[in-house]
TrEMBL record:
This is Odorant-binding protein 4. The lineage of its organism: Eukaryota, Metazoa, Ecdysozoa, Arthropoda, Hexapoda. Pfam families: PBP_GOBP. CDD domains: PBP_GOBP. Keywords: Disulfide bond, Secreted, Signal. One of its GO terms (cellular component) is extracellular space. The keyword Secreted applies. The gene is obp4. SMART domains: PhBP.
Length: 145
């Protein structure tokens, strides 16, 4: 499976998308980040690390990723992967950039085998790490903004 935080950042960074689409995605991403920061207690250092493309070093930072995953259907509340619901969530991308959509689905399917963990926050981080690695392998060089 794949980190939807990465999905969204890739989508926002993609040049082939309309500015209107990028703006909508960015607004959703910002609202989710604000909610998750409050919910998880993630610090400014946690957020700075994520922006710097570094895996979280605190549990709060890992839970920030899990929170984002829940909002964007990558993971369910119980920590399991979102399955077909997560892929369906990508449908608006298909209309704007079919090639990028196909890559995002491929990333999702590849990362479905990321190492699991009983802690959904740790699992979320494993998914995000896999998503970044796979995005780069598919030629998406800057999966984060």
């Amino acid at each position: 499976m794949k980190s939807y935080l990465v999905f969204l950042c890739v989508v926002v960074a993609a040049n082939a998308l309309s500015q209107e689409f990028k703006d909508k995605v960015m607004a959703k991403l910002q609202a989710a980040a604000e909610k998750c920061t409050e919910e998880t207690g993630a610090t400014a250092d946690d957020i700075a690390g994520l922006i710097a493309k570094k895996p979280p070093t605190t549990h709060e930072g890992q839970c920030m990723i899990f929170c984002m995953h829940k909002i964007f259907k990558v993971q369910k509340d119980d920590g399991s992967t979102g399955g077909e619901e997560a892929i369906k969530f990508l449908d608006p991308l298909k209309e704007n950039d079919p090639a990028l959509h196909d890559k995002m689905v491929q990333i999702y399917q590849t990362c479905a085998n990321a190492p699991t963990d009983p802690d959904p926050c740790v699992f979320a981080t494993n998914l995000a790490t896999c998503g970044i690695k796979t995005a780069r392998e598919l030629g998406i060089e800057d999966p984060f903004m």
